[in-house]
Amino acid sequence: MTFKETALPESTGWRAPFGTFRLFAAGTHAGFARHVDTFGPLDLDSVGPELISVLKASGLTGRGGAAFASWRKLAATAQSRSAGILAPRPVVIGNGAEGEPLSFKDKTLLAEAPHLVIDGLLAASRAVGGSQLYLYAGAASFPAVERAISERPAARGIRLVEAPDRFIAGEASAAVNAIATGSALPFDKRRRLSESGLKNRPTLVLNVETLAHIALIARYGAVWFRSVGSAVDPGTRLISVSGPGPDQVLEVAGNESLGEILYSSQIDAADVAAVLVGGYHGRWVKPHDYKLSVSGPASHAVRPGAGVFHVLPAGYCGLETTARIVDYLAGESARQCGPCMFGLPAMAGVLNRIAYRERDPRLVKELERLGKLVAGRGACHHPDGTIQLISSALDVFSDEIKAHLAGTCTTVNGRAA
Known about the structure:
Helices cover 39% and strands 13% of the residues. The protein contains 15 helices and 12 strands. It is globular, with a radius of gyration of 22 Å.
């Protein structure tokens, strides 16, 4: 699709951010005046359903983890609204819950650039004909967001709802449940949220970083968004980098190489044992020759997931690290389905026995057997995400597994044999 097929201007002629420095271009803690001075005004009266076509042309995918095409979520919600004469108007929710322990990009974005998120929320609501707007985030994000809302009369209808500090609290149905009932637990989605979500209304849930990108695409258009990144993974994305050294948030181009991300983070690849990409539901990889991308073969591309890039330094035991993560995940389940209540604790137990060097050669087979029993059976993605993490650990740390089953460890910082 070209720009000429859309109704929005491709560019306002304002000073569009250049390169990969986009979302934080207004500087730290930008108030509304500096936000407008940096990005230009967003004429919300000109925003309507045609924004969905612009988003389709942009190729924007969700930045919360699942990487769905953003335009499809908006289109499905708008379609539900038009299903009948008395169809209720949609609800639009900005999701900044960020329950992933290794992620801090969303709270950083809400602290530094809340007006971009608000712009995106208002624009998305206009596109789908929304009537109620919520911003769901941790309490620490409230002061900056409340200050930003107070500066803009058009934003004062946005309701803030506190997200609990739990891993599963950011799942889309958990966000809807938290707003409706105060309980941030996922529910079984027999109907799509776009058809029946909050109070049985069509409901659009978008990650706050996704909303910030929508705010810029609504101003500058699809071609501008695609001016960085690749054809299959256009634009930029935020990633939370942790490991050796201080935590940092980077804005990188789509399809960026892991080696380049390490370089930008001032981390020497020679000192890296592995990188956990995507968060606790992500995947361990060796950094060589991988791209961070929403598509591509698993041998060359790794999905960004929740935008987490956690570096395990050389000399540290990946099995012990993974066992601690799986312990945490087993304790963070919704306790609503058998795979979470029984399957994840059982897998955590077996993985811990391997990590702490129990000399039983049957343990790996048992872990694989449990994974097959649990896979695809949960009401939400929690069991499958955990299995993905464990599977990658069995692959990437295969040498350590052999050593552990022999009662030793290949790393210098593993527990003494």
